[in-house]
Every structure is written in structure tokens, then in C-alpha cells.
Amino acid sequence: VVEGPEIEDEYHHFDALNIPKDHPARDAWNTFWLKEPKNLEFRMQNSELKSRNSKFLIRNSKLAKTGKFLLRAHTSPMQIRYMETHQPPFQIIVPGRVFRYEATDASHETTFTQVEGLMVGENISLANFKFIIEKFLKKLFGEKTEFELRPSYYPFTEPGVDVYMKWRGRWLEVAGSGMVHPKVFEAVGYNPYEWQGFAFGFGLNRLAMIKYNIPDIRLFYSGDLRFIQQF
């Protein structure tokens, strides 16, 4: 289990993840961009991240590659940060809070908890991912849970797939995933002909809403003890 910074740089959040300069996610209306104080020297070389079995330092951070910083909109930058300091094979899970610049309603909030997964090794395929996600969904929602993978697009995967689960007669999208794009491996110095991997991400709040029939995502951050004490 790996944790990372909530304030990210443009390189790790976009460039290294193969997200092009003209992608809508970079637009000011979709991302919380930050202004850097004039007298602040942003140091990430000594940022300490916690893993399950050890602690490690990002010593060769490319954070200074750009001067633009933002509140992370996804936990995927930790794929890059972890791979910069580790060699395959490995499997990691990255839980963390993310931020989206969007209007709030019953199913959308400006902040929520995301869980990222990354597995890299030799001969890794979507079959490995399908096995893992099946075990996870059936453990969480019951052995009779039906799910399917549908083609999708994410700049950092090739191919990309969405995970849909059948719940009370409806198909619901519960996760985005796919095989790690070769350009992402190249950004961290991996040989894409030698290593393969899959990545996935899902909103923890959304899964809780489905499982416990919670009608409004804003309840998680309302501070209402009547809601919180149910769990």
C-alpha cells in the first residue's frame, strides 16, 4: 500500500501519463491549478512515502520539470512516482483523496477517495486483471455478482476498459482500467517489450454508495453524525 502527495506537479500528473497538452483534463475548468508563492521553494526530493513493508524517498524527482502545480485529480501519478524508484515485478495499491473542479450534485463532489491499483511483471495480461477484479467484486457484493469489461479510452492505457457491474437490474460503471501504455513505461525507463502491466482506479465513495444504498455522495463530507454513526 503506497501513499502520495495531494499537491502534484504537471509532469507526474499529465506528461508522464501520456496525457496530451490539449487534453480537456488540463483545462482550468476541470482541474484545481495552484499558484506558487513567489518566495516558496517547492521541495519534493525529501517527500517521504509510506509503503507496506518499507519507507522510501523520492530522491530523483522530476517535480521541478515544470513550474505548475495542482491538486491531484486522480491517484495515477503515484504509478509514475513508484516506478521511478522501483523495478518490476511488483503490485501496489494507492488509496488517496482526489479533487475535481466540477459542480456538485447527488453523484458528483469536488473531493472524494480514489483507489488505484498497478501490477507490473512479465506476461501480465487483461486476463490477470479480470481474475483479480472478479474476486474483489464478488467478495464485496456477493458471489452472484455479474460484471463485464467494456472497451474505453484512457491516455495512459492501451487498451483501456471500463468495469461494469450489474446491480438491481442495471449495469453500473464501477472502475476504469486497462493495460499500461508503452509510453508510460518509457517515461520511467522501463522496456515495454520486456514488461507488461495493468492499472485500475475506482471511487471508494461510489462503491460504498452502491453497497449501502446511499443516495447522495455529499453525505460523506457533510459532518452529519447521524449519517456517519451508521457505519
Which terms summarize this structure?
231 residues; alpha+beta; BirA Bifunctional Protein, domain 2; three-stranded antiparallel β-sheet; 6 helices; globular; protein biosynthesis; Phenylalanyl-tRNA_Synthase
What does this structure look like?
By secondary structure, the chain is α+β, with helices and mostly antiparallel strands. The protein is built from 6 helices and 11 strands. The protein has helices spanning 10-13, 77-85, 126-141, 182-187, 204-212, 225-228; strands at residues 7-9, 33-34, 48-50, 55-57, 69-71, 90-99, 111-121, 146-152, 157-167, 170-180, 196-203. The strands form 3 sheets. Strands 6-7-11-10-9-8 form a 6-stranded antiparallel beta sheet. A 3-stranded antiparallel beta sheet has the order 1-5-2. Strands 3-4 form a two-stranded antiparallel ribbon. β3 and β4 (55-57) form a beta hairpin. The protein starts with 6 loop residues before the first strand and ends with a helix. GO terms for molecular function: ATP binding; metal ion binding; phenylalanine-tRNA ligase activity; tRNA binding. Its main location: cytoplasm. It catalyses: tRNA(Phe) + L-phenylalanine + ATP = L-phenylalanyl-tRNA(Phe) + AMP + diphosphate + H(+). InterPro entries: aa-tRNA-synth_II, aa-tRNA-synth_II/BPL/LPL, Phe-tRNA-synth_IIc_asu, Phenylalanyl-tRNA_Synthase.
